[in-house]
């Protein structure tokens, strides 16, 4: 592996770099405290679906389809569109994409060989059932029983599994069958929840801001209070948690699952359940799922969403699943018939052998060793640049990077993101994980405003290219001062603000 030389560190190893900027801070004419004064924030607001006003409709002067309202883009879509405006292409070798939440899909040491062709019977050209191919549903149920339900009387069967074309499709199917309820969610969390809660109006969002000083730990006692005092009936959360890289496990997860037996539906997005990194003295091979603490698979109101996308490193297959009580699965069949029509039939058949429990153990072990090495490498490089990560990722393949100790204007996620686009690198500004369906908050007041999410999903060479770009931004700020930052962003390919 080539050794990457970090430029002069932006800060010391203790993560206190402000001393380097006592002189250059004078280059900043004023301290920007509101989004109206920031070019990066105005570009964000001008993008369809991100304005404060509700309902969010397209420009009336340009409207060609009456009544269309933009739901707002997810972080990845917005950031990729901004990258396109700056010359990004998917096949470019010059760019580093640390934004998209996708794992590398090629071979890794110790894993089973990658699939690169499939064969299937002629009748697989037909539609699959909206609940999915029965054999795959049974394979999913069997895997959960082997991994999490050894010795338990209640087991999952194919009737507890619905195959869906992607995690978002699974969440949308679930949201479509939930009646008018208060839905509790946490900030920060997965960016797509913002759109789900904004579009499916029967889910009334009740946010809880997690505390960075407490390492974004879920407060079960607060959740119990919300259930009693606010009438919360649905809890939605990712676990392991995107974007902070934390995980709810053991007794805390058992307690969370227990809420499902108190007239509360618990929906857990478990796509990163294999990305668990052992601490000192622990062994590789760990895993996490609420399925371990479900007592009765048809009585406990626990809904699990997972699939091939992250753990199996097959995002392009769009084969995922929802696991839960039988009566939920029959409802999801109905919502799937009008929402998405079902998952790819041939790829469902091809997925069945991938769920063999012995193969799963092999792939999970290889994945954890490979991704932990990447995590540790990137954390080390960031620390040498004075960007010490305070909330260490225990799981997932994300780093939740706090920029607050940097000087304005590069101390907020949107501006830092725009500056990195100039260096051909993509990250995701933290504000996309501030699930705020009404979009009313001044972005500078968001608890996620000073963060960016970095993905160490891509191959190591791409990761190093992105960290090199971050180093160039910090070095430029140190040498040239801050007057050149916070402006002169390319609005679109033709130079205009996006519509």
UniProtKB/TrEMBL annotation:
InterPro entries: Aminotransferase_I/II_large, AspAT/PAT-like, PyrdxlP-dep_Trfase, PyrdxlP-dep_Trfase_major
Gene3D superfamilies membership: Type I PLP-dependent aspartate aminotransferase-like (Major domain)
GO molecular function, one term: transaminase activity
GO biological process: amino acid metabolic process
Cofactor requirement: pyridoxal 5'-phosphate
Keyword set, alphabetical order: Aminotransferase, Pyridoxal phosphate, Transferase
Start and end residues of each Aminotransferase class I/classII large domain: 94-470
Signal peptide region: none
Stretches the record annotates as Disordered: 44-63
Entry's family note: Belongs to the class-I pyridoxal-phosphate-dependent aminotransferase family.
Descriptive protein name: Aminotransferase
Organism listed in the record: Sistotremastrum niveocremeum HHB9708
Upper lineage: Eukaryota, Fungi, Dikarya, Basidiomycota, Agaricomycotina
